[in-house]
Hints:
5 helices, 69% helix, elongated
Amino acid sequence: MIWKAGAAMGAILPVVAAAAAKGGATVATSTPAIWHFLGYPFEAAGMIAALFGCLSARFWIGAAQSVRQEHRWSLDIPVSGMALAVSAALVISHRTEPLGGLMYGAGLGILGEGIFKIAESQLRKVGLIGAEPDKAD
Length: 137
């Protein structure tokens, strides 16, 4: 029994000595990548998640609409740009983690759909887009 305890101490002692020499940490840890934009730090993963969520919501929700294809450059791109910019600003100001960034981005992308619908109805009133909206059967 004493030999077993002595063998265990002989195996543990070099590990403890090496840990003390390195400052106490024996397990490798990772830190999130921090990016900077105009001097403001934010987590890279949160920003990527927010932009992906916003783009997904903006383009996959209304991709099949004919109004989108007709007026992509004049209407959809500016609305998408605003939604992406606000998503990025929220991530920078709140320093969110990836899940929070994804939720901010997807939420703002869906709000962008509402903005698109408002802009579309205003353009229909002015006459820049056809008078009757597309009707699904």
